[in-house]
Amino acid sequence: MPRQPRSMETVERLLAAGEAIVKRKRRLDRLTMETVADEAGITPQAAYRYFGDVQALILLGMLRLQAIEHERLLDFLTAQAFDTETDLANAAVAFVIQAFQGMARIPATMRNRIAQDYFDICYDVLWKISEAIHSAMARRGDPCAGIGVMQLTASLTSVVAVAKSLLLHDATLLNQPGAQLMLVDIFLGALRRGPDPPAH
Questions:
Q1: pLDDT tens for residues 35-76?
Q2: Per-domain boundaries in the chain
Q3: CATH top-level class of 1-52
Q4: DSSP, residue by residue, the chain
Q5: pLDDT, tens only, 88-123
Q6: First to last CA, the chain
Q7: What is d(CA 144, CA 71) in angstroms, rounded to the nearest whole number?
Q8: Which of 81, 130, 151, 155 ranks highest by number of CB atoms within 10 Å?
Q9: Are 177 and 78 in contact (CB under 8 A)?
């Protein structure tokens, strides 16, 4: 991705144009580099200098949205103290469900294509978020401060993976109380399982 201010501005214009078209048309198959360039007010040739094809533009747009959601998750889970593991699980699950419900409002065909082709679970990012949560709890002396980074990562990864599966199968399931309880149980199960002791 280009780093010069003018180049960054052009990339931002292209991403904003792509997002505007998708919101209007509510379909990904109507998105082309030519329509994006026209919406952004630049030539298609200039657009192709930044993105080889429309899939690259969509992927960067999705990565940017994921980065925003990861930052929100980090801020949300490090800003509050958790007295119990269940409090932590409820907060994490509520956040993940809210994030996925945003995707649930997208038409099913487009939502499934985005989720299957462009939405990847960022395991390394979830590990870093877990490290930050662990550090924040330890600094504050939270009752949950003994939870390890590996356990937090396993819990977050499990919840995100199952929530994505529900979204792909039937997005309305995310609104079901039973699904929320199941995700909390999954989070707690991974949390309480913990790493195996080393073999002697």
A1: 899 989 999 999 999 988 888 888 788 777 778 888 888 888
A2: 1-52, 65-193
A3: mainly alpha
A4: ---SHHHHHHHHHHHHHHHHHHHHH--STT--HHHHHHHHTS-HHHHHHH-SSHHHHHHHHHHHHHHHHHHHHHHHHHSS--SSHHHHHHHHHHHHHHHHHHHHTS-HHHHHHHHHHT----HHHHHHHHHHHHHHHHHHT-TTTT--HHHHHHHHHHHHHHHHHHHHH-GGGGG-HHHHHHHHHHHHHHHHH-PPPPP-
A5: 999 999 988 888 777 766 667 666 667 666 566 678
A6: 49
A7: 21
A8: 155
A9: no
Amino acid at the residue 12: E
The two three-digit tokens of residue 65, written as one number? 């949205």
Tokens of 57: 């533009």
Amino acid at 148: G
Structure tokens at 11: 């990339």
Sequence letter at residue 83 = D
Placement of tokens 């960054």 in the chain:
8
- Reading the block at residue 187, the tokens are 């989070």
